Amino acid sequence: MGTTYWLILFAILMLFEAVTVDLTTIWFAIGALVGLAVSAAGGGLAIQLAAFLVVSVVLLLFTRPFIMKFVNKNRTKTNIDELPGTQAVVTEEIDGIRGTGRVQLRGMDWKAAPAPSEGEKVLPKGTLVRVESIEGVKVLVKKIS
After folding, report:
1. SS3 24
2. What are 73-110's pLDDT values in tens digits?
3. Fewer CB atoms inside 10 A, N or C side of the chain?
C-alpha cells in the first residue's frame, strides 16, 4: 500500500474525528501515520497493515481511557448524573417481585425498584433509601441501614 493511500486514510480519519470529536478515530489516524512511515521505509503491505492495526488498537485501549479523564474533567453533570448516591423516601411499598414502588426524590415522584444487590426485597413505605443507579425511568434503590 503506497504512502498516498496512507495519507488519504489519515486525512479521512482526521476529518471524521473533527466531525465526531469522540477521541476514537484519532488513534486510527495515528496508526495510519505509522503505516505511512513503514511504507516509506520500504516495509511490505502485511507489515504496514500489522503496524497500523497494532498501534491503533493499543492506543485506543490504553491511551483513550486516560485521556478521557482529562477531557471530561470539567464536564457539567446533568440532573440524572447527580442522582446516584442521593437519598430518597419510599412513598409506595417497593416490591421487586411485583415490580411496584415509588420514591420521593428531590421533591419529585419516581418509579422505584430494589437495586440488584438488594435482591427481590420488599421496602415498606417510609423507608429511607439511597439511589444506586437509574434504569430508564426507574431508580434502583438500596435501603440505608
Report:
1. coil
2. 666 556 666 778 788 888 998 887 787 889 988 888 88
3. C
